[in-house]
TrEMBL record:
<feature type="domain" description="Neprosin PEP catalytic">
    <location>
        <begin position="163"/>
        <end position="417"/>
    </location>
</feature>
<keyword id="KW-0732">Signal</keyword>
<feature type="signal peptide">
    <location>
        <begin position="1"/>
        <end position="26"/>
    </location>
</feature>
<dbReference type="InterPro" id="IPR004314">
    <property type="entry name" value="Neprosin"/>
</dbReference>
<dbReference type="Pfam" id="PF03080">
    <property type="entry name" value="Neprosin"/>
</dbReference>
<protein>
    <recommendedName>
        <fullName>Neprosin PEP catalytic domain-containing protein</fullName>
    </recommendedName>
</protein>
<dbReference type="InterPro" id="IPR053168">
    <property type="entry name" value="Glutamic_endopeptidase"/>
</dbReference>
<dbReference type="InterPro" id="IPR025521">
    <property type="entry name" value="Neprosin_propep"/>
</dbReference>
<dbReference type="Pfam" id="PF14365">
    <property type="entry name" value="Neprosin_AP"/>
</dbReference>
Length: 417
């Protein structure tokens, strides 16, 4: 079936497209180049968008396809041809701050996805945000669609400060390193930060990292993001990312390449989160837990109160096939320096940490999974930001929120020109 072209062949086709686009740009057969691009886009969409059992139109314009669990993009991967889907993890870590144990008045109402207003996916299917032609055309090339443009993982340990500012990505994060980690958890306040330019984004996530910050970095990432380039709007969306070679040839957002195996029929990767927190008003947050199954070695992800979404098979990774060496939590924006000034793209709520609850964005109850598969408060947590006058981070600790931090900022302001 054409929809099941293997990864290898797909890449070859895409590479030839890139080559031809450059020849068209150089004044070559531009008509042929356009036709060829149309064909490549169509083929790419056919690879990504599997035949649905049912489709749901979300109020934000997304189409959510309910695809049979065994027809999802993961199974285009040659290594997954004979894979038996794990329908549940063999092990689930437990810790201090399980939401059903939190009795505080600040307990958040349950948070969902916008498309739920118009329907649900049946059993044995998974909801997949349908990729449109426009989504692909916004990318610089078919090959780059769904992939990060730059290496952007913050490296707070870098000895070369110049490198930190190199990519135009800015961060305000908390982190731990120096041990073996088997997972991480956080409750993340959800906002809709403003981005100044369509090619900028603002996100809040956790990073599970293995290897050095060289060419071999392994990373599993999950959180929320506003990314006009990726989604065509300014909505706040649930996302994941993975790479096993520092964002070069492997990995992607969400289900936009074969890798993550989803088992859950309620939550769609890349779909809008609803509702969102208001400044000085109602606050909403999401729970994210990523952990390594000690028996099968797969990395599982859970969202909210017990939505086990699925897993990244262990074989996708090198270092993370064993354990993570660093965990980071926090915000990231792209600063494209429009008009030679710092961007006004916001991080978190767009307000500095000093403003505190209901005004600044937070991560609370941040935990790591240790070698005994227990969730614990991280020891020796550090904080890092490139320019605290633009975006800042402040750690704290108390009984109810455990380890937490407020982070974010407005970007351009009188102290951040
Ligand atoms: C899948 O199973 C078939 C038939 O048993 C076998 O020939 C093939 O090598 C297997 N593929 C992988 C990737 O394990
Ligand atoms: C997204 O936000 C930018 C400015 O922040 C605005 O110019 C643009 O119209 C918005 N796009 C949509 C689809 O709402
Ligand atoms: C990044 O660049 C800004 C502006 O040039 C500078 O103020 C800041 O100190 C740099 N940060 C680091 C960590 O080098």
């Amino acid at each position: 079936m054409a929809g099941h072209i293997g990864l290898g062949r797909g890449l070859v086709a895409v590479l030839s497209l890139v080559a031809c686009l450059s020849c068209a740009a150089a004044g070559g057969r531009s008509g042929g180049g356009e036709a060829r691009q149309r064909l490549e886009v169509r083929r790419h969409l056919k690879r990504l968008n599997k035949t649905p059992v049912k489709s749901i139109t979300s109020p934000d314009g997304d189409i959510i396809d309910c695809v049979h669990v065994s027809h999802q993009p993961a199974f285009d991967h040659p290594f997954l041809k004979n894979h038996t889907i794990q329908m549940r993890p063999t092990f689930h870590p437990e810790g201090l701050f399980d939401e059903n144990k939190v009795t505080s008045q600040r307990k958040s109402p349950s948070i969902a996805q916008l498309w739920h207003q118009n329907g649900r996916c049946p059993e044995d299917t998974i909801p997949i945000r349908r990729t449109s032609r426009d989504d692909v055309l916004r990318a610089s090339s078919v090959k780059r669609y769904g992939r990060k443009k730059h290496r952007s993982t913050p490296n707070p340990l870098s000895v070369d400060p110049d490198l930190l500012n190199e990519s135009g990505h800015q961060h305000a994060i908390a982190y731990v390193e120096g041990d073996k980690y088997y997972g991480a958890k956080a409750t993340i306040n959800v906002w809709q930060p403003r981005t100044q330019q369509p090619n900028e984004f603002s996100l809040s996530q956790l990073w599970i990292l293995g290897g050095s910050f060289g060419e071999d970095l392994n990373s599993i990432e999950a959180g929320w993001q506003v990314s006009p380039d990726l989604y065509g709007d300014n909505n706040t969306r649930l996302f994941t990312y993975w790479t096993s070679d520092a964002y070069q040839a492997t990995g992607c957002y969400n289900l936009l390449c074969s890798g993550f195996i989803q088992i859950n029929n309620a939550i769609a990767m890349g779909a809008s989160i609803y509702p969102i927190s208001n400044y000085d008003g109602s606050q909403y947050d999401i729970n994210i837990l990523v952990w390594k199954d000690p028996k099968e070695g797969n990395w599982w992800m859970q969202f909210g109160n017990g939505y086990v979404l699925g897993y990244w098979p262990s074989f996708l990774f090198s270092y993370l096939a064993d354990s993570a060496s660093m965990i980071e939590w926090g915000g990231e924006v792209v600063n494209s320096e429009p008009d030679g000034e710092h961007t006004s793209t916001e991080m978190g709520s767009g307000h500095f940490p000093e403003e505190g609850f209901s005004k600044a964005s937070y991560f609370r109850n941040i935990q790591i999974v240790d070698g005994s598969n227990n969730l614990r408060a991280p020891k020796g947590i550090g904080a890092f930001t490139e320019q605290s006058n633009c975006y800042d981070v402040q750690n704290g600790n108390n009984g109810e929120w455990g380890q937490y931090f407020y982070y974010g900022g407005p970007g351009r302001n009188s102290n951040c020109p």
